[in-house]
């Protein structure tokens, strides 16, 4: 108790936010990977997704050097850059915002919380990238790139400069970062740092962060002295409806057997891209089975930390008692709300109890008009 109250009293409250761009607000990685995949094949090399781990959070020069060296490319870093940047610029308009980014920016701006964008990317590139996201530029009172300070992250320079320009003490700033160099930079600056790792299963690398969250949807600004989000309804967060469907396939064979909770799995191959785009976590919505009707549904998307799966799967539990299995049948899902991040549990009983709690939250929420209306969505009975 003493330790808890000590750490509480040590927790600093923030009055402004310093935020990173690539990997935190926008999914730059997706476009970069696409380009590198094609570019490297010209040299007879194959882009290795794991390489992404090594370049997140680096300055453009460091990232280019890493790629040229790791792939043993027969060109210099300058030549690589002169070929890479035009390709990248041409694709900048395809870089999507990450889930919760737009919501976060509008929320903080709406409450008059000063915000700075501090990125290892160059000032010019930052400006181009955010120009594709309506209204973002005006939400930041300060924008600063690594070409405007002597050293990029993990040096604290960017954040120190951003705080200075906002006229705040770095200790009053909340830094939001997806990369390890970025987290280190924020801590070195003396700020409070929230890590939102952009690559899955990397939480262990972020030990110096004040908190590690799974996605921006899980950010609780009030924990850090900032205004709370007001869009949660009865412990659920409405999301842009997401529709997926396909034949029910065999899963790990443990849903009903081990947990007493059957989950009708969909093939992840058909939804690979969307799966990457959606943060793992517990969601809910409506499920349509062609010959059986429409049912409430609660599901997890992710790696099931309790079982430590290596594959990200979709696990929908239809909230209805069926007298038989329905493998092979067409299942359509419309996912309308978010409940919580996936978690690990000390025992199977506690995992099962939590899933039943999720079921109750989902069942109640789906009766609210804003969620109930999707029951009649034509997608479910197509
Ligand atoms: P698997 O690992 O193959 O997915 P589960 O033990 O999770 O096996 O059981 C899922 C299967 O159980 C579904 O594919 C479906 O055929 C059947 N099933 C029966 N009732 C339900 C339900 N309420 N929700 C989901 N699936 C159900
Ligand atoms: N697995 C976890 O490891 N952690 C979770 O937090 C978790 N939450 C779930 C929530 C719901 C609503 C459902 C249906 C499943 C959840 N599971 C979770 C997944 C469960 O482990 C999975 O369905 C089984 O492993 C079956 O493959
Ligand atoms: Mg299953």
TrEMBL record:
EC number: 2.7.1.26
Pathway annotation: Cofactor biosynthesis; FMN biosynthesis; FMN from riboflavin (ATP route): step 1/1
Keywords: ATP-binding, Flavoprotein, FMN, Nucleotide-binding, Transferase
InterPro entries from the UniProt entry: HAD-like_sf, HAD-SF_hydro_IA, HAD_sf, PGP-like_dom2, Riboflavin_kinase, Riboflavin_kinase_bac/euk, Riboflavin_kinase_dom_sf
Domain Riboflavin kinase as annotated: residue spans: 237-367
Pfam (any one): Flavokinase
PANTHER family in UniProt: RIBOFLAVIN KINASE, RIBOFLAVIN KINASE/FMN ADENYLYLTRANSFERASE
Name this polypeptide is given: riboflavin kinase
Organism name: Brassica napus
Organism lineage string: Eukaryota, Viridiplantae, Streptophyta, Embryophyta, Tracheophyta
